[in-house]
Amino acid sequence: MEKLLAIGLMSGTSLDGVDAALIKTDGEGHVRPIEFVGDDYTGDERAAIRAAVQRALEMERPGDDPVIAIAERMLTARHADAVERLLAQAGTAAADVGVVGFHGQTIAHRPDRGWTWQIGDGAGLAERIGITVVDQLRIADVAAGGQGAPLLPVYHRALCAGLPQPVAVLNLGGVGNLTWIGADEALIAFDTGPANGLVNQWVEHQTGAAFDAGGALAAAGSVHHSVLDTMLDNPWFDLPAPKSLDRHDFTDQPAMGLSLEDGAATLTRFTAETVALALRLVPERPARIIVAGGGRHNPVLMRMIGEACALVPEPIEALGWNGDATEAEGFAYMAVRSLRGLPISFPGTTGAPGPMTGGTIHTPTKRTQAA
Ligand SMILES: Nc1ncnc2c1ncn2[C@@H]1O[C@H](COP(=O)(O)OP(=O)(O)OP(=O)(O)O)[C@@H](O)[C@H]1O
Ligand SMILES: CC(=O)N[C@H]1[C@@H]2OC[C@@H](O2)[C@@H](O)[C@@H]1O[C@H](C)C(=O)O
Predict the structure, then answer these.
(1) What are the binding residues for ATP?
(2) N or C: at which end does the chain have fewer Cβ atoms within 10 angstroms?
């Protein structure tokens, strides 16, 4: 299959910013990362997204809302800026890029109600950057009865090609998800629970900082086992895959009353234990657990995962990939698969009734001319 230059754009559940990655891929076994940029949101931009999330969580189903429209305009512009910065940094012309995979911002995820909601104006983005955009990658899957998430397992499998199986890839974002790759490339994937989301919320509420940098607060605190046990005593963890979460399905409420440090330690340990619980749901214990996403920068979380799982988690850099870029690169890969009609979700990853492609293609009216 021909290889394309593709850009992937991700704005994740932790609302930290826009990640943009340029890769060359055939959407199958070939992946070559070229460039990556991460642009942080300002406090005002994050507040605008939070306001949109708040509205969306109160709505029965996706619909028009002025607060959400404001956030969507801002997000689309920030994604266009990120594409321009990425192309300038790579020294690549827009005309040479085959497609952009635009995840958008999840503001609410309700597969139980038959919908998931990612905002971002794909058609507007295509016009502004002059490149074909693929967005709404989760919608077809949910409409067919799938969870609509996680979508990146097929990309994780490409990154782990050649490794002894079974092997697992763990994404530690605002929400966590695990991909298990068994013999004959079998895929099982599901969300594990909140990853950094609750600790972020805890720390931000008490200190104003966006997260527990380096796990310093957690390292200075003690785990309160009664709080931890209460949080883990949740039937959701026993549910088999497929399953997925909205960022707000869990709260830090049980930790209220603990000191800042003890709360951070307890919530961090909670995240680690959810990974151990997830490993009970896969058919065979993986030989390695490869970690992508921002949580791998937190040494306390990584240590606690090692203790809870009795398996040392390895940052995805151990395989030669950049774990900060994995999601953005993954959506570039997804866009190429979408253009080619290849499946992006599977019965074992989202509960789709069969392997399914997905995504909406927006072709700009004025395609930038190739150089
Ligand atoms: N140096 C660090 N120390 C501790 N935690 C960190 C560090 N760097 C990043 N993180 C954590 O990683 C988070 C960002 O991770 P990431 O960008 O993978 O999330 P996301 O893509 O927004 O989420 P999702 O995968 O759920 O969509 C931060 O909010 C923070 O909690
Ligand atoms: C609905 C939604 O945006 N889900 C995200 C979120 O962030 C992590 C986890 O929850 C995962 O299910 C998914 O993202 C990754 C990139 C995925 O689809 O593979």
Answers:
(1) 12-19
(2) C
Q: Checking DSSP bridges between strand 187-194 and strand 175-181, what pairing results, if any?
A: antiparallel
If you measure from the C-alpha of residue 261 to the centroid of ligand 1, how many angstroms do you get, rounded to a whole number? 19
User: Is residue 199 within 8 Å of residue 268, measured between CB atoms?
Assistant: yes
At 169 the three-state DSSP class reads strand
User: Ligand 1 atom closest to Cα of 14?
Assistant: 22
C-alpha angle 310-315-319 in degrees, rounded to nearest 5: 115
Residue nearest to atom 17 of ligand 2 (CA): 150
How many angstroms does the Cα of residue 173 sit away from the middle of ligand 1?
5
Q: Which CATH architecture has domain 4-142+357-362?
A: 2-Layer Sandwich (3.30)
Nearest CA to 275 among 237, 234, 330?
237
Q: Residue 207: phi, psi to the nearest 5?
A: -125, -15
CB atoms within 10 A of CB 252: 22
Low-confidence ranges of the chain (pLDDT < 50): 370-371
**ipTM score for this prediction:** 0.98
**pLDDT value at residue 321:** 98
What are 280's two structure tokens? 């009970």
Global confidence as pTM: 0.97
Hey, where are the domains in the chain?
Answer: 4-142+357-362, 153-311
Two domains, one topology: 4-142+357-362 and 153-311: yes
Cα-atom radius of gyration of the chain, to the nearest Å? 20
Hunting for tokens 């979460």 — which residue is that? Answer: 245
Q: Is the CB of 176 under 6 A from ligand 1?
A: no
> Best of 171, 296, 327 to mutate for ligand 2, by most ligand atoms within 8 A of CB?
171
* Ligand 1 atom at minimal distance to the Cα of residue 213: 3
CA nearest ligand 2 atom 3, residue:
106
Write down the pLDDT at residue 371.
Answer: 43
Instruction: Determine the pLDDT at residue 368.
Output: 61
pLDDT digits (tens, 9 = 90+) for 53-72: 999 999 999 999 999 999 99
Mutate to test the pocket of ligand 1, among 10, 16, 19, 291 (most ligand atoms within 8 A of CB): 16
Domain 153-311 falls under CATH 3.20.20.140: no
